[in-house]
Amino acid sequence: MTDSISMDTIARVNMGAKSANAPLTMSHDKGPEVPLIEATIGDFFDAIVHQYPDREALVVRHQGIRWSYSQLQQKVNQLASAMIEMGLEIGDRVGIWSHNNAEWLLMQLATAKVGVILVNINPAYRSFELQYALNKLGCSALVLMRHFKTSDYAKLINELCPEIYHKDYKHLDLVEIPTIERIIWIDEPNSDEAFNYMQKFSDWMAEGHSDDPRVAERQSKLDRNDPINVQFTSGTTGTPKGATLTHRNILNNGYFIGEAMNLTHEDRLCIPVPLYHCFGMVLGNLAILTHGGCIIYPNDGFDPLTVLQTVEEEHCTGLHGVPTMFIAELDHPDFSQYDLSSLRTGIMAGSSCPIEVMRRVIDEMHMSEVTIAYGMTETSPVSCQTNEHTPLDKQVSTVGLVQPNLEVKIVDTDTGEVLPIGETGELLTRGYSVMRGYWGSRFKTKEAIQEGWMHTGDLATMDEDGYIKIVGRSKDMVIRGGENIYPVEIENYLYRHPKIRDVQVVGVPDDHYGEVLAAWIIPKKDETLSEDEVKQFCRDHIAHYKVPQYFRFVEEYPMTITGKIQKYKIAEMMKEELGLS
Questions:
Q1: CA distance 36 to 574
Q2: Pairing mode, if any, of strands 199-200 and 514-523?
């Protein structure tokens, strides 16, 4: 079965310095059309293993794990067998509530082999949010890590289901999460901890066999368009929605992301970003696995020092991160002690990428081919990406060109008409990467996807070469006295100040102008900065109405677990502090 996939037929994509359709006059472009991978994740993974059986596939530093592709495949098949033995059927849902570890990757690949839908649950969720996610999807099982920092996940389960103390893990029947049949906790080697109501992951694995013929039989029944993964949107506003993604969605997206990075089987990718998010699971795991390279997890959670150590000692060629991660690595007091010369590429994504940070990553971290990737969970996630041919000025100011086999356009937010190049409107995406829909939310799906176009809610511009610049979220736009202001523009200017490490700009209410700007600034280490100093830096360089009225100097921002800054919380805190409404 797996040998039927010829790796020689998979198209390599030569992304150029501009769109093949340039020069454009309207803000509508299509990526190169090349054959898509029409296999399931399990079949494609097996084909990669067949080609690179003895190459290193996974290194997990904090667990002391090194597995070749054939070793990884054996463990994946064993876990897949255990899932079948447990009674999980095609289309059943299983939640994973954990930070980065080898078990996470095993779950990702094993569920794909047996047709079970993996439900990514944010490790920052507490009992109420966990209950919502499990019940929304009707999950049959939950795999969880034992603890992380101050979070005790067993205790959170006990709080949600106090009757669980009197249950056996094979007969749960819980009131608050009634569809859950089994809870499995990720144990450590030689752990003597035990729970009657939870099964050890290692014991669950032992129920399966790597040569179980039922795995191949189940695999043969799957279709590339089957849903295989549900990821909840951040939920920073309203109830989280479960984006339902297929084999075809995320397998192809991972492959084309890797193509933009020029990945090969020789590459070693350091992944400090969380796996429960598309960044780690697709831009990380699938991007490198589809090219036969090596996945490297430096730690279970982000720590700048272990990232630097891992890059040097594992000779990593690629490194992923959100801007705040790269800033933390660059500003670490021991940064200069580490040899990062093996680095070539990587992805900076997740939020607006400051120009000055990008320049430092290229110059000081040797990442000459670092790329910017843009997208959203609902589009698997990447729609646009820069590549090695992207001119430097566009590398640091745009999110690149539309990906292969995808189509993007920028439309007037009122009329829906495509805009001429250079004009600001909402960015829409169409193609293979658009999700199946929001799980159990037909109305919200129809609201988001119209005639195949995913409405991103992001404001953008497109130039004649096809490069897209994100200027903000439509909800983030600030209207000051009739003037439209995009906070990212002011942020990018303020990043140039030699004493500013990071800055976030939001809108707050104002009796006279309707809205004005407030800036939260994190100064660089050992630097002092005053409001007057920043205002002077703005004066005569940006329009007066773009100069923030309020300034706060802080040490950190409210953030999601994925490293995304929660601007709405900054705005709320400013309004409360200033007594505004």
A1: 48
A2: unpaired
